[in-house]
Specification:
Shape: globular
Structural class: alpha/beta
Largest sheet: 5 strands, parallel
Order of helices and strands: EHEHEHHEHEHEHEHHEEEHEHHHHHEH
Number of strands: 12
Oligomer: single chain
Strand order of the largest sheet: 1-5-4-2-3
Strand content: 5-15%
Number of helices: 16
Distance between the termini: 47 Å
CATH class of the largest domain: Alpha Beta
Helix content: 40-55%
CATH architecture of the largest domain: 3-Layer(aba) Sandwich
Number of domains: 2
Amino acid sequence: MSQYHQIQPAEALARLGDFGTIIDVRTPAEFAEDHLPGAVNWPVLSNEERHIVGTLYRQDPLEGRKVGAAMVARNIAAHLDAHRDVMQKHWRPLVYCWRGGQRSGAMNWFLNQVGFKALQLVGGYKAFRGEVIKTLAALPERFDFVVLCGRTGSGKTRLLQALASQGAQVLDLEAVARHRGSVLGALPDQPQPSQKAFDTGLWQALLALDPTRPVFVESESRKIGAVQLPEPLHQRIREHGRCVWIAMEEAGRVELLLEDYAHFKQDPEGFSALIGGLVALRGRERVGRWQAMARAGQWAEVFGELMREHYDPGYERSLTNHFPQLASAPRVAVRNGHAEALAVAARALLDQTATSSTSNSSVACGGITPPAP
């Protein structure tokens, strides 16, 4: 493949929006784990075909290449037939595979032979992944994070959304992770991304932020469900973030939790199974009582007890350990989880943040005052 038809990763990632289509020719399984933003999957080998070719290649390299070439050619022909409507005049796609080798090279060759100015990503997905890791290591230190801390159910995530609607910069880690961060936090209709896909989502989110303006983020542990925050980002938030305590009365918190976890009303056994994992922390008798309350439909009561007896003690202990000066952090009261109350709180928080930045009186979560935005 001529270098004329290739592009280096840094240039390609800076120009992703310029390509008519970003074509990932890896298997559906590889694509599902992670892929370049906006990519479509035109696999030149299926999951099963790749396994067949790999096994055969280890036994007889020449036979493996012959069989693989025939499979690749047939699959490329099928894609050219299936996607004729996409391939219009002046269409310029970016093509990549795992390492920028034969799979993407074959597709790129065919497309250029047709007459399209297709480009192959040098180094493939592996090179893209390297850029993501490098960026996630370097970029967090550029940001001034304002960290929303508060008890479970105090509306931190909804407040982030209200802040975003008023023009603030927001990094919603739970949205990227597709998880609410607790033992009950899995979303009923959305599986979590793989760790690689989560990293890619963070990479996109961070690149979209302006480092000259504050970024509002919710306090999170290292793990959100099954995925883990990159350590440079986690450390920056913990050690240099400006804490704000978000306060809501218990009645409002219970109401909010009933809304956020309404799907458990149709699945009390699923709820019971999840909180069964708390036996080691809270004891079999107490957890059994919560399970019985859920099965009896006493959802307000069970969420109230979970807050008071499990979430609040554990969360506050964790916050105290990680954010030593939290006790002196400014406070913002949120009346409840309704849109009007959140909008009022968001405005107050924006005003408070602007004032503390101007006066340089902000409180650093880890005892370090960050630079003013």
